[in-house]
Structure formats: C-alpha cells, structure tokens
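Lab meeting minutes (informal)
Scribe: AK
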Amino acid sequence: MRLAEPADCPNHFRMTRDPLLLIDAIASAPDDATRSRLLSDGARDLLADPAAIPDIGAAAIGSADDPAARAAGSLLSMALTEARMARENDAPEGAALIDTLDEALAALDAARPFAPTMRLRLAQFYARAGLAPPPFATLSDEGMAEGMAGSGEMPDLGALIDPILQEIGDAPLQVHGALSELLAGLPGELAAMLVSMTIARPGAIEARLGLYWLLDPKPEFQLAAATALLSRAEAGTLAPDIGALLPTLRKWLPDNAARAALDAAIRRQMQSGATRTAAPAPAIHRAVASLPDGVGAQSLIAAVQIGSRRALAMGMLKQGHGVKDAFVIPCASAGEQKRMLASILDEMESFDVSPETLAAMLAHGLGEGLALGLVPAPGMVDLAEIFGADALLPRAGGTEAILDEIGAAEALAGLPAARRRALIDASADWAEHFDQGESWFEDTGSLRAAIARARTDKGRETAVWKQLSSRRDWWARLFALAAAVLKPGAEADPAVWLSFAAVAQALAEGRPMKRIPVMADIMAMTLDAALARSGGASGVSGAGAQAGIGPLLDQAGLGAAYLQGYLTALAIAPLQPTAQDWLGALLGRIEIPGMDEIGVLLEFLMIEANQADDAAADAKAVARSLAPLAAHDLRDWAAGFDALVTATRPSWPARLLGAEDKRVLREIKRIASGSQGDALRGELPSWVARRHESRR
C-alpha cells in the first residue's frame, strides 16, 4: 500500500523523543543487537537535530557506576562518531552537533571545573569517536599534578595496562584502542612517555602495540614508538616476527623523525641475524569489495585461513583519507566465518574480486594517504601479515595510475571513438543496475549555501554544476576504482567495467560534464536531495513544519506513539482502507486554522504513513521503534492502533484474520485500556511483519 508521497521521501517532521527515555532504553536493552540498533538510530537522530545533545552530555558525566550514565556515554560517542564523519564530508550538521556539545560542556566546566577523572572520561568519549578531546576533556600539567595528589610520581603503568591485558590480551588491536583512549586526555609529552614505557615492557603484546602506535596520527606517538622499538632491537628483545614487519611499515610513514628512528631499528634487527618462526602461509578463500559510495568510502573484505584459524580481514578506504580503517575479526570455525561473511554482505552491495585485486586497492589507498601525509589505520599491521609485505607497497593512487593498472587505458585506446562514446552514454543506466548509485550526489555546506542563494531552477543547476566541476578529479577517481572492482566479474560483459573506465577517463581528460549522462544524474540527485532537505516544493522547512504541526497534534491528544500505532495498523490492514476512512478519523479530531495548515498536515501524514508502511515490512524495524517506548507510550501506541482498526472496520474482515490475529488485536485493545503490554511487546514485531506480508 503506497500513498501519495514516495516512500523514500525524508521525514522533515521528526517527532523527537525524550533523550532520557532513549538512554533508559539503551541501558535496559535485552540484548546486544537491540542496544546497537538503539545507539545507531539515536546517534543519527541527534545528528539531524542536535538540540538534545547537551542533555546526553550531562547524563554521560554522571557516576561511572550508573548504567544510565554508561548508556549515555555510549550514545555520546556514537553521536560524535556520526558527527565526525559528517564533518569530514563537509556536511554542516556534523560541526553543529560537535559545537553544540562543546559549548554546553565548556559552560559546565567553567561554572564548576570538571575533576581530573571526569576529564579523562570525556576524553575517552571523544577519542573513541576519532576526535581530538577539547580543553575541558584534557588535563593540564597542573591538573595532572592534582590527579597525582601532588606526589609528583608517574602513574602506575602496570595498574593501567594489566587489567586491559587480562580482559582482551588476545586482541592486541583492541588493547591498543583501549590504551589510546585512556591516554587521550593526558598532556602530550606525558602520554608519549607512557607509550614509550608501555612498549619497553618485556611482553610480546607490548612490542606489537609499538607497531600500532607507529601508525598513530600524532607524530609524538610515532616517534615514541619508533624510539622504543629501537631500544628493544638494541637490547635483543624485539621478536623476529615483529622486526620483520618494520620495513613494510616504514614505507607507510612520512619522512620524519619517527622514520629515521625506525630505520635504525631495522638496521639493528638485521644485524642480529634472528630468523622468524616458521608459520603457515595465510590462505584467502574469498575476497569481496564494494563500489565507492557518494563520500568515497569503499569496503574491502577477505575470508582468511591461517593454519586451522579462520578470520575475516576488513578494510575501509575513503577518498581524501587513504586507509581509513582496518581490522581482523577472528572466527571460531569455518561455519562461523561463512555466517559472519553472509551477514555482512547482506547489508551491502558487493562484488567478488581476486585477493590480488583487493591487495592492489589497499596499496592505492596507502599511496593516496602517503601523498596526503596521512598514516593508515593501525589495523593495517594485521593486514600486512595476511597479504604480505610486497603486496602492500604504496602505489600511485590517481585516476590515470588506476586505469593503467587494470588495463583500461590500453583497452579503450583500441576502440573506435563511437564505441567509447557509447560506453560513456551507457552510464545513464548505472543507477538501474548498481545500488550504490543512489548515494552518488553532492552534499556540502558550501553547496547548500549556494543552492539556497539561487532564486531560480536554472541558478540552482548552475550552482551544482560549478560544484561538480571543482570535483572533476574526485569523481574520475571514484569511477576508476569502481571499474577496478567490476572488472574481475565482467568476463561475460566487459562493457560494464569499460563503461566506468571510459567515464573516468573522459572526466580526467576534460570532457564537458553535461555530456556525461551519469554526471547529469548526479546533478539531478543533488538537487533532489537539496529539495527534500528544505521541505520539498511547499518550501516548508522541517523546523517550520514541526512548529506548525506539533501544537495541532498536541491539542488533539495525538502524541508520537499514538500516531505511530495508528499508522502501523494502517500499514497492515488486510484490505486497504479508503483515504476518507483513515484520514477522516484523524482530521476530525484536529482543529485546523486554515488551508495552508491543511496542506502541511496532509503532507506530513502521507510521509509518516509511507514510512510506517516501509517499517512494518521489517520485524527488526518494528522492534527498534517499540523498544524506546515506556509503558504509557505503549498504551498510546495501542490506542492509536485500535483507533485505526475501529475507524476502518470493513478493512478487517474476520475471514482474513486467523486465530492468532484476533488474539493479538484483543490484547492490543486491552493494552489501550490500561493493561500491561510487556508480554506482547516482544511478539508484536514478527506479527506486524507477517500481517504486512499477507495484506491485500
């Protein structure tokens, strides 16, 4: 059942929930999956509307023993992660959330300075999100002295490290992440000293931590790690397996003091003559890659076997950042590996490639990062052991180098000009064949401002074309990478990957963008996204619509939960109700001042109804929407659901309802009348999804 507005139209009229209710729902989540969904959905909501982020921050600085404070801290880190990614992409909501939080916490700190332990906790939240902690989340030298009670002694390194090693010592990369978070709020010189002291400890894991810290964004950490590894090499306590990785990592580092110290460590290790422990060579059973998305992010996955051990090796490349993330997930068995891989691939459009192709993509990411003065993600240490040092030498990462490497330049040169034009024209069909094409549009703060300034459709188009023109090289490289992903599976139809290669080459050579169909599509999608974000053709902004609609609904007693239940029932009615029946029952309760408000209200209800229809098809989505509802909210939800059933009784004929359906409807009516609904809450998601599938 589809209504007047398209299902993918964004909801400009989001009804915000009490952030404290969300925190309670996260703290009391019945399982990790539910908790994860609540965190990710809540973080995205906060990014769209950061007004509640100060409340989340205030809740997060409560007692570390309070489950609600821990839940708030997790939500805070997740929201900061979303904001950091948005800021990297020049989307203004990222900076808005970060600035809103920083201002609120800075004001609290100014009124009553945070204790040192609180500063360190806040620093962990920021570090976990990949952000540098602000001043209120860091210790000054004076604050450090206060934290050490004026003793002047260094922190107990064993007390800092040993509990982490005991808990996750079999996952060195996680140990590195945990320690880096603990060090984030310390003065830089002291933190670097602790890095050096940690690596100097005699354990094997401590030496491996040195490899990860070589790839830290902070130059002082890189230098501390390289110097400590040199000391271990000189003392003969650097294991050959660790030392063998140093030449590879050296090629990933910029030419700085850390690399000079690392060169000395490599020479000393070579002089020792130590040999590596014999180990089985890794086998890569399957390699998979995604196409780059609209912000240039690309996922790489390999199913790996090392002896009897199984794992998934994962990397994420991002244009302008090089290797953004990398890690290895151990698997208990071949079956678990297969299930985990299938679960991941269910969530993304992916293409099988050869292990060599996957390694080449990583190498191009390394090359791009090195050219930008960026080190790769620390987890690349683990991937180097899987793919081998020679496979991960940084390569030139530009469009021309990528096309040459996959043989595209030679293949295109051998084609007639008409055939090359046809390949470029074929890009008009990409959106029909590749899911990732839906993300290929521009959305930056400067572009939003330029579109907003334009007074005509022509002016808005001109603004987008100007933006695309400034990003010609960026889009050319994106399509070259897509060609590299698609080539291994294109034996049956080489025109697919050659089409991407031809567009990349045309962009690199300066072909007018308006003569490249996919660029015209990107221009149109960019304008569509801007129009949707501004509230559509009506010109009503999200904030304005919410301000106008909220009071109307409140006066009629139609809260968010009531409306959610009402529209869920609409989505699963066995027979589609008439608009007169379902809309009439709602509009009859609302005092509408004038015709303008009617239009806004109808647009709002159509959007909400379509989104409820989409959600009802997915039991997990229904569960996510029900999880944060407190008992009184669930009663409102049930009341709304029952009201729709009552208003559209002919759409619920008994012949189309089974015994279970009738029982659930009776239970919903009881909940609406005040009965407890906890027992039914867990049953509703699967029932709603089944009813949605069986409707007519």
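Next up, CB showed the second protein from the same session:
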Amino acid sequence: MRSFIADIIEDRARLLTVTTAVKYICSAILALLAVGGSGESGGLVAAYAELAAIFCVSNLILERWKKPGYIASGILLLLFNAQMLVEFFGGTFISPAMITNLDSLEDLGGKTFIYGTGVILVLAISLLPSRVFAPKPFTHTGILSAVLALELVFTLVCGNTFSPLFSYHTLGRDLERTRALAASIDNVDEDMTLHFWDYADYNFRKKPENLVENPNVVIIFTEGLSQNIVTDDRNIMPNVADLEKESLFFENYYNHTFPTYRGLIGQLFSGYQLQNYDENTLVSVQEAFRKKGYHTSVINTEPLNLNFATFLESLGFDDVVTNVDIEPEGTSSTLSDRQAYESLYDVISAEHSAGQPFMTAIYTFGTHVSLDSPDEKYGDGSDRLLNKFYNCDFQFGRFMDKFLESDMADDTIIIFTADHCTYADSDFTGAFPDIRRVHTECDSMPLFIYYRGIEPETVDVNGRNSLDFAPTLLDFMDIHIGNYFLGFTLFADDQTSANMTSFDRIFSDSAVHVSTPDAVISDLSDVQMEIFESELHKYYVAKSQKRAK
C-alpha cells in the first residue's frame, strides 16, 4: 500500500488523476447527501447535470490553459459545493436571510466544529489540482452540449429552483431588489401613513368577565418553535401541550416572517421588516399597554450581544431588563432557558409587588438552530433538537408551577408563542423524518392565552399568521387604539378578515413570499406578487415617513 502511494506521489500525472477523481467524486457524494435524502429527485438531476457541466467546462479550459483551467475548476466547484453544503445542513440553498444574518453567526455556536469542518473540507476538495480527462470516443464539447440540452429541458419542465448555480443569480437578484427598494423609500412624496391608519374600533371578543379590570400580561416568545413539535406523540413538550389544551388556543397559526429580529418586531408592531435592524416607530403592543396605564418591560436574554440589546431598546418598552450579574450558561453567552425562566419569574414578581399593572415580554434563546440542551435531556440525550425542546418545556413547566402557586396567577395572563417556526435544517429533518416541509422558514406555530379560570377553546384560524398577534391581543384586552397594523384580530371570521387585509396570509422575509390560506403553503401568482410588493413598498414608506415626523 505504501509503495502504491509512493508511486503515485512520484508520478505527477497519476497524482493529478487521483486528485481530479477525488474532487469530483467527493462533490458527487456531497450532492447525494445534500439532495438525495430530501426525496426531491429533480434536485439530484439538476445537481449532477451541473456537476457534469463544470467537469466539461473545466476540461475545455485545461486543454488550452492549465492555470486558468485549474482556477476555473476550483471556483466553479467551490460555488457548487458551497450550495450543497448549505443544502445539507440547512435544507435550502444560500438565501438572502442567511446573508443578512452573517453578523449573527455566533448564534450557530452549537455546531461550530461541525460547520467549520464542513467548510474546510469543501475548500480542500474544491481546490485540489486537476488534469484533463479525455472521455473518448466522446468530446468535452459534445458532453457539455448534451448536458446543457438536458438541463434546458429539465428547467422547462420543472423550473430552475433545483439549480445550485442558478440560485446564485436568484440570490443576487433578490439582494439587489431589496437594495433598490430601500433606496426608493425616501423618494415618495405622498403621505403613506394615511394608507394604513385605522382606529381599530373592533370588538370581536369581549374581555372575559372573570378577569380583573387590568390583568397583568406576560408574553413568552420561544425561539423557533413549530406546532408539530408540541403535538408530537413522543411527548417532547408535555407541559406546553397540556397547558395549550387548557387555554384559548389558535390552531393553524403561521409565522409571517423569519428570522428572530423580524419575527419579534413584526408581531409587536403587526408589520414587515425590509432589513433586520430597521426601526419601527408606528403603533405597537407595548405602546397600547403603556397608554392604558401599564408598565412595559422586555427581558434581555442575550446580555453580551450589543446588536440585540440595541434592537430591544428600539422597540419602545419602558424598560429593557438586562442583568449583567448573571453568568450566561447558554451558547454564545446567552441565558440558558433555565436562567431565562428564572429571570422571568423574578422580574414579574417584582413588577407584581410594585402594584402597577404590567406587561412583560421575554424571548428565550435556548431552542435556537444548532444548539443542544445544557440541562435536561430527552431520552438517551442523543438527539440535540429533541433535547433542547424538551429542556425548554421542562423549564417552562417549572416556571408555571411556581407561577400557579403564587398570587400572580390570580390577575396575570400568560401568552405563549414563538418568534417564528422551527427552521427545517438537518437536525429537524433528522428528528422528524416523516414531515416534509414545503418551506424551510414557514410553518404553523403555537399561540395560546392562559389565565386561571379560562374556559378552554380552540380557534381554527386557517393559515392566518403572526401579523395578527398584536390586534388579537388588544381585541382580547378590549384596548382600542389607532394603529397601522397590517394584521387583523384572529377573533374575526375568515371572510371579515379577508375583507380587511390580505397580509395575514402571506409570509415574507423581504425576498421570499408565499401564501398560507387554508393552512396550505403555496407560491403567490404573478398578479398577487405584484400587488403585494406594491403594498409592501407603501408600508416601508409609511414607516420611514412616521420616523421623520
């Protein structure tokens, strides 16, 4: 064996043959791992067709110029393999949401070694030296022509969504569209705030008579939680599932955007975000409660994250509670879910003792993509995704036990939901192999309202989304305030809601738009897309004009 390897090293031609074979075989295996397990045979056809095209183009250049051929081969394979790597870990090609969240890479710290190893291997494989392969009796030009013809036919039949390399064009187009949209916002003279203003004098649900006059409100935004995890037969989240059955539960309720920054501000203001850090100075849930005489606060579970702290400060709460004395035990210097729920109990206990009605919100980080549980484990602890959601549920259960034993339970409402659904990455598909998600970023997620003495009720909202969070909460609390909400109260029937807004059935992360009517995810038609993007532009203009006033 040693003699064989030594012979290869001494024979440069044989060495180049081996390295060339290795780089293409490894790329083919990566494509199989990334796309083959998804059940989408079209993706594998497109991937292998493009890999064959890269092979032919590289060889055509290598036949004439060695160094340019090597460079072309390396760059093309690197672009291809990068898409396959992201597809393998993330379930989709590189997206605008990923690009705009590059400043939050530390949030993926739970799998730093795994992701890092993948990146290094892709770089090493893609940049291996190459030589010309002559597949006689065929020519590279002939093979390339055949491959391109096959891909053209495939694209005409199945579309270009399966194409790894074409997705770079799509990515660039979406990023440029977002840039152009941002640049155009300040060039509108018409007052768009009037287009969205509404007094919101709706009263589709009277505040329950068994609630006190001004009940305190606790809002829990769980990181990335889909409803199927709560209802799974394996009892991953039994405490949440049990309380959901005892509450006012909204079924078939979807997230309207992705990821966290957009999800949190979007729900609190009932609107979309063009960029992650865009400020929204329109009417919010916290402003409505403050005008009602409530003290509002939000708990910062990422005390060492300056971007997140600045983001929370921009939301307009009376207080952002950041306890720097707590030593963060979660990944990326965040509070673990155990610490988060302990902090929540301490904060609302102090608020309750102060005597003023309060509204307190918290975002728990422990179920973020890539993370494992630092505390409780599910079963034998071998599945990091099941571990983190089981731990989240355990800590929530401990919090609720303490809460129900306290006098706060007599006059406080608990609202449990998520910032967005669970991202369908490789951990998710591994833990739920029988679930085929139409979209990696959009899914049904939990929303329920609980207080002591509530009559359990399930309201099927048929695919309406989290833009409706703010108007629904204010309707439930009988709080009427003029607003610019894009959503509408979930207590209204489908027809009434449809007459008032179409936004609450459209998911948008500023680049990707899909609809969710009747709890079915589908693409927008060209006409729907044109109308939606026109209205979306008006909303972004309205936000900008309100800030300028």
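CB comment: The chain has two domains: 2-180, 216-548.
No objections, moving on.
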